[in-house]
Design goal:
single chain; about 170 residues; 4 helices
Length: about 170
């Protein structure tokens, strides 16, 4: 009986060993991101970071997530987190960058607007979070009825009439 049990175990072990798939070493490929893919990943990170501050209250002349943000303080704070130094006042955006055509707008680009009361001077900035030309959406610290970091539509009358330009602050 013992011999029979040992033989049965041996047969089972051999059967199991034959049924297991053979493992082979395969060559692992690593995809290297293109410059465009790297750029888009960075832009996506910027927007994800900016959205963390949705609802943060508006506070004139502030760039503090605890105290609140004004528009340029918010844009400055977001990009500074990624090592990008930008003007601290909205008027500082008047002469930076090349104005993009609407079809060139990308998330992470900065929209520059004339002021609400002064249609000759730059007075507001925001960051494109959904790119669609002049129908894009942007995140910004609004001093309007929201009085907080919010998302607005560039295509709305309020912002279309005040639009000055859109610039790529991440480089060409």
């Amino acid at each position: 009986m013992k011999l029979y049990t040992i033989n049965l175990l041996a047969i089972l072990l051999l059967a199991c060993a034959k049924e297991q798939p053979k493992t082979t070493v395969t060559e692992k490929t690593t995809k290297v991101a293109t410059a465009d893919e790297t750029d888009m990943m960075k832009r996506t990170e910027i927007i994800a970071f900016a959205k963390k501050y949705m609802g943060t209250k508006y506070c004139f002349a502030s760039a503090s997530p605890t105290k609140g943000f004004d528009c340029s303080g918010f844009v400055n704070f977001v990009f500074k987190n990624f090592g990008i130094e930008l003007p601290r006042s909205s008027s500082g955006f008047a002469n930076i960058g090349r104005a993009l055509k609407a079809e060139e707008f990308k998330i992470g680009d900065v929209l520059v607007f004339y002021g609400y009361r002064d249609s000759k001077s730059v007075g507001h900035v925001g960051i494109i979070c959904e790119a669609n030309g002049m129908q894009s959406k942007f995140i910004h610290a609004s001093s309007g009825k929201e009085m907080a970091v919010t998302i607005s539509e560039l295509g709305s009358e309020m912002y279309t009439r005040r639009f000055y330009k859109c610039v790529n602050v991440l480089g060409e």
